[in-house]
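note to self: dont lose this again. the chain is below, predicted strucutre after it. 219 aa total, dont forget to put it in the shared folder this time
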Amino acid sequence: GSSMKSVGEVMAIGRKFEEAFQKALRMVDETVIGFDPYLKEVNDEELKEPTDKRMFVVAAALRNNYSVDRLYNLTKIDRWFLQKMKNVVDYNTLLESIAQVNLTKSVLLRAKQIGFSDKQIAVAVKSTELAIRKQRRDFNITPYVKQIDTVAAEWPATTNYLYLTYNASSHDLEFSEEHTMVIGSGVYRIGSSVEFDWCAVGCLRELRKLNKKTIMVNY
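---
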């Protein structure tokens, strides 16, 4: 009989490709901290075959100084995407050369703008996630809430997608009133998908009946 092998997609929203790409990688697998060049070994044969782990072989190849052109010839991935991936690996290498005490506000902000998580930065500078988060807050580096008009301005949208980004200077929405937060079900897995979404939607509907303002947060 038939069986489900893969959900097959992930959605991540950002204002730079690097940001959205690293968000997506973390959403697929909670053990992945981002575009990690140390997860896989360089292997030209693996670079030629598209698999769900090939991007980490690409990361390893970039760390080992493979050029964009060489990777294009092996993978046939468009050079534009390869260059964006190279930006992430190059910045990871830069972070590895800096001790946490020497992290400046501009370096930390740039890392956040290209999708580095606090944990990912901590691994690179040999620190801890909590220490990086505290330093980031001391620098007043926090994300902004932006929204996507899901109906392309054809009529007023009331159900916009919201996302967090460090590539902004203002919020699209302000949350001045008290809201009740509903935690979403996270990524789809085989055997857990729509029914968990429906649990969250049902919770939101009941809260609205109680005249509570709500916000749903997914990871």
